[in-house]
Design brief:
By secondary structure, the protein is α/β, with parallel strands linked by helices. It starts with 18 loop residues before the first helix and ends with a helix. 42% of the residues lie in helices and 17% in strands. It is globular and about 80 Å long. Strands 10-13-14-9-8-15-16 form a seven-stranded mixed β-sheet, with helices on both faces. Strands 5-4-3-6-7-17 form a six-stranded mixed β-sheet, sandwiched between helices. Strands 1-2-18 form a three-stranded antiparallel β-sheet.
């Protein structure tokens, strides 16, 4: 199995090695021990920083071709977040990579030293999605390299220009014997998984995540899953309605709503329902025009998915929106009081459609969230610390953000990850470093004294002493 890669000028370069050869080469590099050196790791991270800064225009052009996104948005949501995380990781890496001392229990003090060493896992696979093809390829790569692994990146076949660019740039900047990019589709992904890798980091849908986890389980390969999740927004009656509407609109419109942590539906207390709905519609109209938000979704199948959700939603379409399955252009929609059993309320939207469900209380909103699969993030807009504490205490989600949405993804000192149907495992900063590391226990015991108490035969006196001394 070989993969031919087309250059932008239309020529075709020599076929790349197949997935088996790629993994074998990466394993040989890992076994050489080179990636364990912290200075080597830092050089790779610095090179990734240069890769993004020196190729910003080429990256923007590829993303424009794949997703129709403007250059500023691509810098903001694909490059800046990675650079922030990379900078944070480089600042702390030497401290993270050191053995961490652990105090032995009182019974063993004087007899042993104990610690644990963050140790790279080996050859890891990063399976990245189409909605943020650069960010969600390079951000996990930062964590994996920081931990000392070799890495194979499998970009989405749905964003071919970005995948080609990554395949071209990555080996020019980082150690090409330690990092590889394999283009292709599900067949290449399955072949990579079948090589018995040491860790898989997958970002994508719940449906595909289950397939990846099932395939990985055949080889007992640990998996990090960053999946979707219908992220709820609770708007309390004491919220700053204008700010809530502005921030919900802004974060929903990012990448045409094709974001796993985008607000997916709103639970609004009735006393502010009318005011909030009017301000939300006004903000969407304003930001859609003034901010030059992109309007094209990834492909026809996804446009048809969004069109079906809107058409079968029920409720009142206070902002009607539109979907053109030929041009792939999608205009935002707001649906008040949708049918709660409709696909709009059961499936992840992944587009610029916002359902609004009126509620009589925060308790009712929380009960609704708890009745659904656990989301990747939950958002609450309120001026009350009591409401904030109540939502945090009584819901389960990958994150809770108060009076904002989505922004937690950009903070490298916070963990990012899901729970339940929204995934498992964490990424970013120290949490990403830990995810790609094995915490290897280290213990060294003196040869003297060598207490007879530890060896059979266990006489009555030894048993009495053991119970008295070892706790």
């Amino acid at each position: 199995m070989t993969t031919a890669t087309a250059h932008p000028n239309g020529t075709t370069k020599e076929a790349a090695p197949d997935a088996r050869s790629v993994v074998a080469g990466l394993r040989a590099t890992f076994d050489s021990g080179r990636t364990r050196d912290v200075e080597w790791r830092l050089r790779q991270l610095e090179a990734l920083d240069r890769l993004l800064s020196e190729n910003e225009e080429a990256i923007a052009a590829a993303l424009k071709q794949d997703l129709g996104r403007d250059a500023y948005s691509s810098w903001l949501i694909e490059i800046l977040s990675v650079n922030m995380d990379n900078s944070y990781v480089r600042k702390h890496l030497r401290a993270w990579a050191k053995p961490q001392k652990s105090a032995p229990p009182l019974s063993f003090r004087g007899l042993s030293s104990m610690s644990y060493q963050p140790t790279p896992k080996g050859v890891v696979l990063v399976i990245s999605p189409w909605n943020y093809p650069v960010f969600l390829s390079i951000a996990p790569l930062v964590s994996a390299l920081a931990a000392g692994n070799t890495v194979v990146i499998k970009p989405s076949e749905l964003t071919p220009a970005s995948a080609r660019l990554l395949a071209e740039l990555v080996p020019k900047y980082v150690d090409p014997t330690a990092v590889a990019v394999v283009e292709g589709g599900p067949e290449e992904t399955q072949t990579l998984i079948d090589q018995g890798l040491d860790h898989i980091f997958f970002t994508g849908s719940e449906r595909v995540g289950k397939l990846v986890a099932r395939s990985a389980a055949e080889h007992l390969t640990p998996v990090t899953l960053e999946l979707g999740g219908k992220c709820p927004v609770i708007v309390a009656r004491d919220a700053n309605v204008a700010v809530a509407a502005r921030r919900v609109a802004a974060t929903k419109l990012v990448n045409v709503g094709q974001t796993c942590v985008a607000p997916d539906y709103l639970l609004v207390e009735r006393p502010v329902l009318e005011e909030f709905t009017a301000k939300l519609v006004a903000e969407i109209k304003k930001q859609r025009v003034d901010a030059g938000q992109p309007v094209r979704v990834i492909h026809r199948k996804h446009a048809e998915h969004i069109a079906r959700l809107v058409a079968t939603s029920g409720g009142e379409h206070v902002l009607p929106g539109s979907v053109d399955t030929e041009t792939l252009k999608v205009e935002p929609a707001v649906v008040l009081n949708p049918d709660l059993d409709s696909p709009l309320m059961r499936e992840e939207i992944f587009g610029p459609i916002l359902p609004i469900i009126p509620v009589d209380s925060i308790a009712e909103a929380i009960a609704f969230v708890r009745s659904r699969p656990r989301p990747l993030a939950a958002y609450v807009f309120t001026a009350s610390s009591a409401v904030e504490r109540q939502v945090i205490a009584e819901t389960l989600s990958g994150a809770v953000v108060v009076n904002q949405a989505v922004f937690h993804c950009a903070i490298p000192s916070l963990p990012f990850g899901g729970v339940g149907a929204s995934g498992y495992g964490s990424s970013r900063g120290k949490f990403g470093f830990d995810e790609f590391s094995q915490k290897r226990a280290l213990m060294s015991m003196r040869t003297t004294p060598d207490l007879p108490l530890l060896y059979p035969p266990f006489t009555k006196a030894k048993r009495w002493l053991a119970r008295a001394m070892i706790r």
